[in-house]
Amino acid sequence: MKFLMYIDPKTGKPQAGVICPNPEKMEMVSLADLSPQLPSTLDDLLPILDIEIISRLYEATRTSAPKRPLQDVRLLPPIMYPGKILCVGLNYKDHVLEGGRELPQHPTIFSKTTSSLTGHKTEILLPACSQMVDYEAELAVVIGKRGKHIPRKAALSYVAGYTILNDVTARDYQKRSTQWTVGKSFDTFAPMGPFLVTADEIPNPHCLEIAAHLNGTQMQHSNTTQLIFDIPYLIEDISAGITLEPGDIIATGTPSGVGVYRQPPVFLQDGDIIEITIESLGILQNTCRREPA
Q1: Which residues, other chains included, contact 121 with Cβ-Cβ below 8 Å and sequence gap of 6+?
Q2: CB 58 within 8 A of CB 192
Q3: Which of 19, 159, 245, 249 sits a CA distance of 20 to 30 A from 83?
Q4: Using CA atoms, how far apart are residues 72 and 61, in angstroms rounded to an integer?
Q5: Nearest to 140, CA basis, from 186, 82, 97, 179
Q6: Is 90 helix (H, G, I), strand (E, B) or coil?
């Protein structure tokens, strides 16, 4: 099932919804109309979400519940207040090699702040202090239940679903320190969405096409088969010392083709449209706007 978060036009408040299972129309239904007793946000729904609730909601979308075109609503990040956004650097071999690095022996983990989150078709703000803002197409894992010391063989059972994340990066700020947090965490530097696709719809997250297009030109293209450290490995490794909780995000890394390693380098400019596409998850699109000096 595809869940989403949007601004309810009647109340002006965030509200969860689901995409109707109709391939001919892209329509959504409010969760409040399908099952009023459920929480109004995905952040609150995840701790209780199970296959029974998903099945019940799926059947409810076939009823006369009021539907609206997806294009008529303003989407938010599917998880608005994750406890953690953990990102994996250098996790595609081709990306490691294009940067002239050696293959890592262990995952390179860093954080993005939750204040960097923004949604589908919102603006990426290019800060006045950086002229080297780059894109990174990434598959993001959304944790569904609390766990620590999670064994590899059980890791995928802790996954609620998957979404798309653009790990936007100010390369000059990233390179001026050994710590990447600031360069990765400017406001709007974590576009995420458009949907949370539940794990039952993605039986193999390690066989998904992933691409980035800048103003219609393909910049990145790969497949999650190329991950150096797969999702079970990452969950086991991270949870050895960090408790994972519902709503936590793990961004699994980006393939080759980022702007900083192109000749000449390509950085995001005012008016650019960047689209991240991942098979079965959809397209995450954002427009870039330069902040005034």
Answers
A1: 74, 75, 194, 285, 286, 287
A2: no
A3: 19
A4: 18
A5: 82
A6: coil
In our burial notation (b when 16+ CB lie closer than 10 A, e otherwise), range 124-156 reads bbbbeebebbbbbbbbbbbbbbebeebeeeebb
Q: What is the pTM of this model?
A: 0.97
Q: How far, in Å, CA of 175 to CA of 133, rounded?
A: 12
pLDDT value of residue 262: 97
Query: Which of 251, 276, 277, 292 has the alpha carbon at shortest distance from 110?
Result: 251
Cβ neighbours for 262, distance < 8 A, ≥ 6 positions apart: none
pLDDT in tens, 154-207: 999 999 999 999 999 999 999 999 999 999 999 999 999 999 999 999 999 999
- Token pair, residue 247, equals 């709503």
Q: Residue 9: helix, strand or coil by DSSP? A: coil
Which H or E run contains 111? strand 108-111
Report, in this order, helix, strand and coil percent for the chain, each rounded to 5: 25, 35, 45
The answer to whether the beta carbons of residues 205 and 291 sit under 8 Å apart is no
Q: Please name the amino acid found at residue 170.
A: A
The answer to whether residues 39 and 81 touch, using CB atoms and an 8 Å cutoff, is: no
Give CA–CA dist 243/228, Å, rounded: 23
Q: What pLDDT, on a 0 to 100 scale, did the predictor assign at position 260?
A: 97
Q: What value, to the nearest 5°, has the Cα angle with vertex 194 and ends 190 and 198?
A: 110
| Location of structure tokens 């800060």 | 127
Cis before 23 (ω within 30) = no
Rounded CA-CA distance 125/115 in Å is 13
Mean pLDDT over 224-242 rounds to 98
Q: Are strands 133-134 and 169-170 parallel, antiparallel or unpaired?
A: antiparallel
Integer-rounded Cα radius of gyration of the chain: 18
Tokens of residue 98, six digits: 């294009």
Please report the domains of the chain, with CATH numbers, ordered by start residue. Answer: 2-76 (no CATH), 85-290 (3.90.850.10)
> Does the pLDDT at position 25 exceed 90?
no
